[in-house]
Amino acid sequence: MKLSPRQEGIICLVKENQPITSEAIAEKLGVTRAALRADLAVLTMIGSLDARPKVGYVYNGKSSNGLVYQNISKIKVAEIMSKPVTVSEDTMVYDAIVYLFLNDVGTLFIENNGVITGAVSRKDFLKISIGGTDIHKVPVGVIMTRMPNIICANKDDNAYDLAKKIIEHEIDSIPVVETVKRTDGRDQMKIIGKVSKTNITKLFVKLGEIEN
C-alpha cells in the first residue's frame, strides 16, 4: 500500500512527538483537524498508528498489509455508497445552502434529468456568501464546478481507491455514476450514488469492530 506524502508526514510527526493529539498534528502541518480526519482513520485502520483516548496518537509500526486493508480492498463502491443530494442548475444559491444544511451534507450535485452536470461544495457557498453577492438572485449553475472537471467513480471501483481519491484531492464527496447513451449516440453520466468521508469513516469503524 502506497501512502500519500501527507500520510508519510503524519507518521514522521507521530514518531518524533508521540503521544500527539490530532490538534497538534494539524497545527504542525498547517491544516485543519477536519482535513486530517480521513488520513488518521486510514493510518489507524491499517495499523500504522494507534489512537489512544485522551492521550493521542502513537506509532504502531505494523505492516500496512493487515486484515483491514485486505478487507477494504475487496469492498466495492456499490456496497457503501449512499443516495446523492441533488439540485438543478437554476436553484438559487440561498435555497441550495438551506438544502445543503437540511440534508447535513458537504456537497450538492447538480443534475439535469438524472445526468450529472456539476457539483458545488460548502467552500463554494462560503466564497460567494462572503463576497457581497446577493445569493437570492444567483443560481448554483454560476458557481458550480462543471463536468468533466469532477472526480467520479463507478459502482465496481473498490472502496480503498475511492478513500485515497478523497484524501489526495481533499474533497468531501465523490459522485458514483454510470454511463448511458444519449439519443445522438454520445455518452453521458447518470448519477446513481455518492461516497463521502462519512461513508468511508463508517466503513472503517465497521471493519474495526469486525477485527476486534
Automatic annotation (TrEMBL):
Pfam family name, one: HTH_11
| Entry-linked InterPro entries | CBS_dom, CBS_dom_sf, CBS_domain-containing, HTH_11, UCP026546_HTH-CBS, WH-like_DNA-bd_sf, WH_DNA-bd_sf
Alphabetized UniProt keyword annotations: CBS domain, Repeat
| Domain CBS per the UniProt entry, residue ranges | 80-135, 144-210
Protein name listed in UniProt? Transcriptional repressor CcpN
**Biological source species:** Clostridium puniceum
**Record lineage:** Bacteria, Bacillati, Bacillota, Clostridia, Eubacteriales
